[in-house]
Amino acid sequence: MNAEPMLGAPLLTSDQMRAAEQAAIGSGAVSGAQLMERAGQGTVEAILRHWPALARNPGQALVLCGPGNNGGDGYVIARLLRDRGWSVTVRAFGDPARLPPDARAARIAWLELGTAQSAEAPPDLIVDAILGIGLTRDLDESLAAEIAAIHALKDRDGMRPRVVAVDVPSGLCADSGRNRGNRGCYDLTVTFHSAKPGHYLADGPELCGALRVVDIGLPQTNGPQDVLCLTASPTDMAKRGGGHKFGHGHALVLSGGVGRGGAARMAARGALRIGAGLVTLGCPPAAVIENAAQLNAVMLARIADGDALARLLDEDERIAALALGPALGTDGRALSLVLAALKSGRRTVLDADALTLLARHPEARARLHQGCVLTPHGGEFARLFPDLAERLSADPGRGAAVSKPEIIRAAANRVGCTVLFKGADTVIAAPDGQVALNAASHERAAPWLATAGAGDVLAGFIAGLLARGRAPFKAACDGAWLHVESARAFGPGLIAEDLPEALPGVLRHL
After folding, report:
1. What are the CA-CA distances from residue 482 to residues 203, 336, 424, 430 (Å)?
2. CATH code for the domain of 355
3. 114-118, 143-147, 455-459 — most confident range
């Protein structure tokens, strides 16, 4: 029995972050003013580490301070930049008289310096501390236009100033990653204690630019079930010494008919490369010669229909996991295979055409069980869960935007199995409420992964891990992490066939 997956850093929502701050303040361990000072100090240090030339040559800074505690962070940043020799202009948004107590104190400390609040030269650095993580509505058009105009400023050499966001860019929803009206472009976002889901979801990565997390001395979050966590590198990929092939699992990948075997072959190779002891491709009798010409280490089985699959599974209990969907087709044979696979109770990855069949046939969907992993992209998810997809894409109006993790958690609960919603912000949820994010952005960006067949290989990775005995949620998390790392190891020019071949190099470094 596998242990629960070890996930990576927690991503705290705005409510969870506020709760962490209030718990620390309430315990007497720290004051709000101390947290604000640490946030400002950490932001300045992150800026100067990111651009060392700015540490050597202080210039003109424009700090935009909003009407809340994010604005308080801005006043601290302005004071600390001035202490380092910068010429600093502060621009206040909203009524400063209505600032919260800690932010008001930070503003007074800034004003006591007697610093002139205007500068003739264009800024070298712009710091956005207008709105923080609590945004739940679209930006007012007037504020959106002001932010856009500030971003459009040019410095004395005609270059755009470096633009930094404090915690989140103003207008970015910290929970969903939805851009609520910011038309700017940030070079760096500095956040505190923990990254937020919105830094990685939806519009977040493109708007944020580079992301840095600053420790402000709050207790670390251990990542309970209701906290979204990043996936992390697997720690148990090595095979046991002295074992044999059946000790590492047998995966069966079902293929479509003549001329439709390529996607399943890539999935099978992915399952084999990730460590399944044996992998068999099951195809119709007419397609055996075609597939035999393409395969060596992957075995072949003639599987005409669902009855043939059921007989094979009855006869060979060593088949531990199945993968169905890549170029499987959506005809009667394909449906019979899906029904037989689900009836067997084996751990099963359902991708591509198999997901279309689940959407069309309630009797198939009713057979889903906890050993299944569904791997839809956006279109497939919308066919399977039209109401949830509509909620995810709906205009939030003046209310809070729904988040992808919230929606995928609901989907997994509905079908009673693990759901992996593919994308640069892949979200994986288990029916018990666990949820993880496999982000291919910021330092893990791999845009070349958007290529035909990459999803088929991912299905094979997960099937291979299921065959090796991993629980479905862990197999999905580990498979998704290894998928991105394989793409990053290969680099630009990647095609799907390269992913299994890049995997050994990734595994060697674990």
Report:
1. 24, 32, 14, 19
2. 3.40.1190.20
3. 455-459
Instruction: Give the separation between CA 468 and CA 277, rounded to whole angstroms.
Output: 8
Beta-carbon-side half-sphere exposure of residue 251 (alpha carbons within 13 Å)? 35
CB 21 within 8 A of CB 35: yes
Whole-angstrom distance, CA of residue 150 vs CA of residue 21: 31
Question: pLDDT tens, 294-333?
Answer: 999 999 999 999 999 999 999 999 999 999 999 999 999 9
Q: Are strands 418-421 and 425-429 parallel, antiparallel or unpaired?
A: antiparallel
- In a domain? residue 5: no
Domain that holds residue 436: 246-392+403-508
247-256 pLDDT, tens digit per residue, is 679 999 999 9
**Measured between alpha carbons, how far is 124 from 118 in angstroms, rounded to an integer?**
14
Q: Specify the number of domains making up the chain.
A: 2
383 with 415, same domain? yes
Rg, the chain, Cα only: 26
> Across the beta sheet with 210-214, what order do the strands follow?
87-92, 60-65, 125-129, 162-166, 188-192, 210-214
Q: Is 463 inside a domain boundary?
A: yes
Q: What is the pTM of this model?
A: 0.93
The pLDDT of residue 226 is 79
